[in-house]
Amino acid sequence: MSPAAPSPARTPSSPLLDWRVRFGALALIWGFSFLFIKVGTEGFAPFQVTFGRLFFGTAVLAVAIVVKRDRLPRGARVWGHLTVAAFLLNALPFSLFSYAELTIPSTLAGICNATTPLWGMLLSLVALSEDRPTRVRAAGLGIGFVGVLTVLGAWQGFSGLDVTGTALALLASFSYAVGWIYVRRTLSGTGASHLSLAGSQVGLATLQLAVVTPLFTSVPESVELMPLLAVIALGALGTGYAMLLQYGVVAEVGPTTAAMVTYFIPVIATAAGVAVLDERLTWNTPVGALVVLAGAALTQTRTSTRKAGARTVAERLSLSRATLRDPREDKIVPRA
Q: To bridge 311 with a disulfide, which of 154, 214, 315, 332 should be the other Cys (CB 3.0-4.6 Å)?
């Protein structure tokens, strides 16, 4: 549009906030999610934090589905695949991050989350026959894992690092990558909207945690206010409302632009951990994080554009809490 052209009139369905504002809010919410997890685990068991997160996230998405009068997915086969996706993309990684943050700082958890594109590329070489590496993408994979070693301080023998907690956080990111490949192979072309798919998936994950949580935890003797508020924010904002924000940004400016939120999450997570929780930060953590992000960006580049099929955006995007994939450029966006 030329500068002299009048701005289009806002229709009733137009968003009230500019997409850049919503993009910034999305990055902040997901970046602060790791802080919310850390605060939540100070008053609740990890499984309880995850259950609360999923419960409040499901509530927000359920309201959105009702307001939009959307239909839930149909077919036993689709619900079976959604059950597996709920485990891989929500129940398992959310629980792993909660357990990881018992012993590692939220800054490190946020950086581990940024390794999802690296795991995604590594797995796609095996699981997706049409996805072949280029030299640039292979270099990005190597650079990314060098960044991981830098964050962990490998040259110091990982001294002062909780190996178990770090491994759990990296396993959570790995689960996101596995889950996305599963979704790509099983839930494309269902005909259901990504809002109904996401809501159903998070709802199923809530049911999974509702079964597991009582088996491994007991009811807290007392409930502290700050951990409770952290869990509510983690679920209602970080799992429910953030999905709705993401849905709107993707619909308005496309998945390629929306994918850039990936590069803000670990930065915000690190800043929040240092400023709010007074977590210790050594030079190798931010430097390694930048190297990880650079490698992740390289793994998502393409030298040529493959012909797109006739699938709709709803069929090609999975707006789960775990990942967002660009169907045109195969970009994977890790999410907290």
A: 315
